[in-house]
Amino acid sequence: MSHSPPAPDDRPAPHAATQAVWGGEGGTHWERATQVPVVKSVSFGYDDLDEWRDVALGVTPGHIYGRNTNPTVRCFEEKVRLLEGAAAATSFATGMAAISDTLFTLLQPGERVVSVVDTYGGTNRLFSEFLPQIGVDVTLCQTEDEAAIERAIDGGLRVLYLESPTNPTCKILDIAQFAQRAHDRGAIVVVDNTFATPINQRPLALGADLVVHSATKFLGGHADALGGVLAGDAKLVQSVFRRREITGATLHPEAAYLLLRGMKTLALRVERQNFNAMTVARHLRQHARVARVFYPGLEDHPNHDVAKRQMPGGFGGVLSFQLHGEFDAVKRFLPRLRWAHRAANLGAVETVVAPPATGSHVELTAEQRAALGIPETLVRYSCGIEDVRDLIGDLEQALDD
Ligand SMILES: *Cc1c(COP(=O)(O)O)cnc(C)c1O
């Protein structure tokens, strides 16, 4: 009689919270361990040369060399694949490795990519500097200008690259609508789902071909491991994997384990973070010292209806708000917060705060930030899983000077 649970594939497809716990963890582990072992071995040995060749050629499953694949890393990829409802998934050392390997695989010189000005800072650098260097034609639209995005898509493109909600002003793009239009042009649609997580939003179900994550943020959730992941169409994922196994931005098995372990509580954490962010957003909107709150869960958010439709799980753990006054107001306010790290990160179990002026958009001038609709007194507030009464009390005392 077997002591191991039935392989997850034999069971009916579970809901996301169950998948986060069990998904991808099947298989016989070393000495019947119930938890996925951290396999640090760089190589995998074969006495039978025929078997070695078959594994190396991918005819039979198995592992050859750690730059290509690893059993611990494979479990992490499988968990994300199941959560995103994807045919395939592959992983990377960081989120930026996932995004750059994906874009540099999909785009050839002379081809066109359409995106928006509000993507993550590193992604924006790929669009503004590195992709044009190899002759890729990059069109970045104003994120809130739906007609401009549609015109850019209709002009023909190889890749449509979206991010929603955006960083740091929480703008929302209608993924289904733009994906459909891009598919009419024969394009590949990629969505960065880092801010939403598969608990809140499933871009593949909305029509995207590929979804990328900085697993460093919500997926891992504990700010102790870097990682990236790409999930979606099997052929496309395979083509990006073929590049990654040569360019070598491989996820480390130790990081894969931390991310796997973090992901077991993904649904619990994200549900709490959704609740905390909504509660904090509603509270701050009433506050005399706060000029404006940016959060897609608020009814007066310009794209609240789209967010409600495409984020059935919730509106995410990140909000931002604009203080009245000058940057000095931010300089006084931030050090007074007791329950928040002041750091360049988000999606962790601890609340993390950062002003774009010193964090995500530090490399831009005040004028460039203004052109992106980022006020100088904006604060990005990534809710942790703390009791929201403590977060609100903390914000109150920090604003009260
Ligand atoms: C952090 C982040 C990235 C980059 O991920 P790294 O793991 O830091 O390389 C990409 N996209 C978004 C939305 C992010 O927040």
Unreliable spans are 1-6
Question: Outline, from the CA principal axes?
Answer: globular
Spatial ordering of strands, largest sheet = 1-7-6-5-4-2-3
Give the radius of gyration.
Answer: 22 Å
Bound molecules: pyridoxal-5'-phosphate
In whole angstroms, the N-to-C terminal distance is 68 Å
Oligomer: single chain
Largest sheet: 7 strands, mixed
How many helical stretches?
15
Order of H and E elements: HHHEHEHEHEHEHEEHHHEHEHEEHEH
Instruction: Please tell me the total number of domains.
Output: 2
The CATH C-level name of the largest domain is: Alpha Beta
Strand content: 5-15%
Query: What is the CATH topology descriptor of the largest domain?
Result: Aspartate Aminotransferase, domain 2
Measured as a percent range, the helix fraction is 25-40%
Query: How many extended strands?
Result: 12
Corresponding CATH superfamily of the largest domain: Type I PLP-dependent aspartate aminotransferase-like (Major domain)
Average pLDDT across residues? 95
CATH architecture of the largest domain: 3-Layer(aba) Sandwich
